[in-house]
Amino acid sequence: MARKRRGRPINGIVLFDKPLGLSSNHALQRVKRLFQAAKAGHTGSLDPAASGLLPVCFGQATRISGLLLDADKTYRVTGRLGVITDSGDLEGEVIDRREVPPVDETALEAVLGGFRGRVEQVPPMYSALKQGGRRLYELAREGKTVERKARSIDFHEITLESLSGDEFTLRVHSSKGAYIRTLVEDIGAAIGCGAVVTRLRRIGLGPWSIEPRGDGSVDPAWTLEALEALAEEGGTEALDRVILPIDSALDAYPAVVLDRSSVDPIRHGHPVFVPNAPQTGWFRLYAPDDLFLGMGEVLDDGRTAPRRLFAAL
Q1: Is 238 exposed, middle or buried (0-12, 13-18, 19+ CB in 10 A)?
Q2: The domain 253-309 belongs to what CATH superfamily?
Q3: Cross-strand partners of 292
Q4: Per-residue buried b or exposed e for 135-146, using 16+ beta carbons within 10 Å of the residue's own CB
Q5: What is the pLDDT of residue 3?
Q6: What CATH code is assigned to 12-70+212-240?
Q7: Cβ count near 68 (within 10 Å)
Q8: Using a CB cutoff of 8 Å and minimum separation of 24, what contacts does 90-99 make?
Q9: What angle do CA 243, 244, 245 make, to 5 degrees?
Q10: Residue tagged active-site, from 17, 47, 86, 89
């Protein structure tokens, strides 16, 4: 007999502002305990030395965490020229120091131009990728280096925000799988003196941004201290008010509203014909009362098939 899961059966997403020094899994467990949630997961690790947006999915929302792993990310990163470490940041061992050549904003912009768009990037040894059943960072800590295949990465935006002495700050909007430490290392290599990350903060993931967009809108992310204060003041009822609905994560997918006769067949896994449904890709499915049902996709015969459904929320 399956063991009953302990905790509250809550569903939805909390935008958590992960602090420095805390692993993503440790952060997840802290938030899960605070909400007394039966089930929780996060949507892509941040290193302990990085801070920022870490969406925490509760209950049925964990079923869309894979879609968020594939989403674009936005970071603010500060790099320091003239220093090379084995990890690409200040957490690692310094393996070289080099003289920094004269670099002004014009020269740095010229270097950055070579990294915008689609590039081939070799994942760092200090990463969570697995090879031979082991995490690369485990091998790196043993002093081992293994060959890694380059991956295609899209850097949609690399904006130079400041340059002061040997430090520069960038805003980077990238596709999934990008390693910002590797980007900074490669920029340093292109300049000829090396570079390391000194500060890294994730400020955007998928549809969310914890810094103002062009229209001034922003999605508030909750620090651990703020969530603890909410729990102290109003318990789980207060905490539940900051939980976002599952479909808030899926704004990038078109929405399709089913007629009443199609809802039950879809819920039972049967394809149906839906007028004006998108012909490619996944899309959100809603009942006529705006209840989010899950994700769908059009089959070759024109019918809409359910791809990821959620129980009535």
Answers
A1: middle
A2: PUA domain (2.30.130.10)
A3: 286
A4: ebbebbeeeeee
A5: 61
A6: 3.30.2350.10
A7: 23
A8: 90/49, 90/196, 90/197, 90/198, 91/47, 91/48, 91/49, 92/126, 92/196, 96/194, 98/192, 98/193, 98/194, 99/193
A9: 120
A10: 47
Q: Six-digit token pair at 135? A: 């995490």
Report the CATH number of the 82-191 domain: 3.30.2350.10
- Residue 47 designated active-site: yes
Tokens 């904003």, located at residue = 105
Burial of 50 (0-12, 13-18, 19+ CB in 10 A): buried
Q: Is the dihedral of CA 205, 179, 142, 49 positive or negative?
A: negative
pTM, to two decimals:
0.89
Half-sphere exposure in the Cβ direction for 176 (13 Å, CA): 10
Question: Phi, psi at residue 294, to the nearest 5°?
Answer: 150, -155
Find where tokens 């102290």 sit: 232
Instruction: Kindly state the tokens that stand for 235.
Output: 């318990």
200, two tokens: 């890294």
Tokens for 268?
A: 């039972």
Burial class (CB in 10 A: 0-12, 13-18, 19+), 53: buried
Side chain identity, residue 270 = H
Question: 192-231: per-residue pLDDT in tens?
Answer: 999 999 999 999 999 999 998 888 899 999 999 999 999 9
β-pairing, 94-97 vs 83-85, is: antiparallel
